[in-house]
Design a protein that fits this description.
The protein is mainly β. It has strands spanning 2-9, 22-27, 30-33, 35-36, 52-59, 69-77, 85-93, 104-105, 109-110. The chain has one domain (2-110). Helix content is 0%, strand content 45%. The strands form 2 sheets. Strands 1, 4, 5, 8 and 9 form a 5-stranded mixed beta sheet that branches. Strands 3-2-6-7 form a 4-stranded antiparallel beta sheet, with no helix packed on it. A hairpin with a 2-residue loop joins strand 2 and strand 3. The chain is elongated. It starts with a strand and ends with a strand.
Length: 112
Amino acid sequence: MDSILITFTNTGSNCRMYGFPGVGLKTSYGTQSVDRNKQEVGIPFTPKAGKRATANVVYPINNTGGSGVRGTALVVTPPNETHRVTVPVAVSLPVSNTDEGHLEVTPVFEEH
């Protein structure tokens, strides 16, 4: 498994963070929703201006020898928000008919 770090930076006034970001992975087959993992959500927090919060997208590494499914961008919606940001990525996922090793996102945590 590998991961992509998502960083949220408070560029303005107080913003309350809690829960999971919404994440989709754009591929040549369309956009795949990223499931929430089973990690427990922490307590709500309010990062001060300039401070950050992070979450991770965990995904299986394609070591099958084939081309796999190419991910080209993450579509990220911060927790409790409606505006999305699209961020380019370059990942190769194995092709599989099982849920084993599927994509998961962790809850946001305040960076210290």
